[in-house]
Fold this sequence. Notes:
The protein is of the alpha/beta class.
Amino acid sequence: MAKSWNSGYADVSIARIAREIADVADVLYFSARKLGHARGGGMSVREMEAIAVQVEYAIDRITWLHENRELVGGLEFVEEPEVLRGQPVAPPGVHCQRLQKGLDVSTRKLLSGNEAIALGAWEAGVALGCGYPGTPSTEIVEALFEYPDVYCEWSVNEKVAYEVALGAAVAGGRALVTMKHVGVNVAADPLFTSAYTGVNAGLVVVTADDPSMHSSQNEQDNRNYAVAAKIPMFEPSDGEEARAFTAAAFRMSEEFDTPVFLRTTTRLSHSKFVVEASDPATTTPERHHVELTHNPTKYVMIPGHARARRVVLERRLEALREAVETHPANRVEHGTGSVGVITSGVPYSYVKEVLPEAGVLKLGIVHPLPRRMIADFAARYETIHVVEELDPVIETQVKAWGIDCHGKDTFPSIGEFSPEVLRASLSLPAAPAGATPGIAVTPRVPGLCVGCPHGVVFTALRERDMLVSGDIGCYSLGVLPPYSAMDTLVDMGASITMAQGMDAVLPKGAERPRVAAVIGDSTFAHSGLTGLLNACWNKRDGLYIVLDNATTAMTGTQPNPLSGERIGRELAPSLDYVHLAKAFNIPDENVRIIDGTDRGIIEEAIDDLAGKSGVRFLAVIAMCVIEAKDLRKIGGYEEKKERRSLIPISAIVGGSDD
């Protein structure tokens, strides 16, 4: 019988434990040196975080040895057991973020999935990054902006962002464009045609899906876009894959002359992972050669050219189908039981936890799918499960190939997965309950921030019993108590256009309900301007209210074309409401730009404009309380208030003071 290290580690190889103790000692020695350096004032926060990661990693190694001591055996195992030889200490899917490359913590960072994508793009030599802020994708552009030699911008909307990125790629600069899942709807027009044109330099499109609708108006599965547009799609499972797959997507984009999707979900975007990283101070990524050549038959999609490119697109897809059969993003992990699981993305981690003995085909590329690889894997197991969040995209294709499997007959098609969801779907015992709080936590209903000036507008609209056509942003919370003042909300910009449809069909006369459209400043720039122009052109009757809080508040106070700033708080021109109204031929008496901190002025303006006819435009200007707090920290509050006329101002009618 093997000797014990202590009563808690019986039967563990002494040789193995000795090596682990030596590694831990090295970590502690390394940490002590760093801490000594810190006493001299030289250690950064990043270095301290790296030390914490190293110590956590060492503890994990010892813990895993204890939990799996039967794998390493007793004294006879002086060398690595066969089950461990050539493998990471931690099995895949359990501690896959614990990168085992010695003690050089300078190569590791603790990053969110979004930050890891930004890192991967920079390491791949990206020249341009752009997007429209939308949770859960927002932090990608913000993180990329911090890297050297990359042009970044927040674009007016996702369609504009996609076209900016496509232009950069055609000109020879690698480009990353980011958006949440519904943003791809906005960008779909250029997206589909860019699959015909190709890209020259790499173009990677991040779609950040939101299963369970944590911050979205729908729960769409954008893998369907990859299938419909005939564009390949990667789907990472953790932060390290997010970094690596981003670089792989750029390589595939250039090899096959196509845009490439990178699909994430909220869980991946906002979770933290230990990620292998290059040092921006010592690394210079290789860039694509920037050159724009005349090639109209490839890039000018008149029908005659497009028909020829359609053939190219189909041939490219056939080549991609062959390439994914051996691509390292797709891998097989054979198990010891009769169950095989085909999965991708974050659910992979849940499969490894709930079904540790199952064989797993882990798909890092979810379109096109590797047919031979899937068929070979399925032939090895009696039962095949397809575990995928939302739509049965993989399941449908697998069944179309004649492979029997269980998918949505077992697992839900609504909401994001978790280990508990998988256990319940498979009728497995629930995991032991964790600690429960000693006191009940009162649920908190979402609402506008305390002190938000726009609450006054909703109160005034409710008190006047107006129908309110709402929009996407903080002000969507106007539907909830205590305001309870919103009747519709569909998508960005729909407040203005849906109000026009209501106006067109509501009966005339004294009993006709009064309609107001409410939209924020960033959303107004995104897709409200065209709606307002449509109202003016078609002589509609309506009150259109812009709630201007000088930022894009709900996604984290990013700048927008009305805030007077661009990314990095660089000063920029801002849209002028008075000049806009004149350009749209809205009569001066139907235009009010007012102080959003004065309840009396707000109520007077609504009453005045509600009694008029035709297109009426009201801009209510008051700074977001979160933006104000952030600006005070950097000393920019007073300057922005004055520059954006956000100090208390007199009501303005038609551009002149009352």
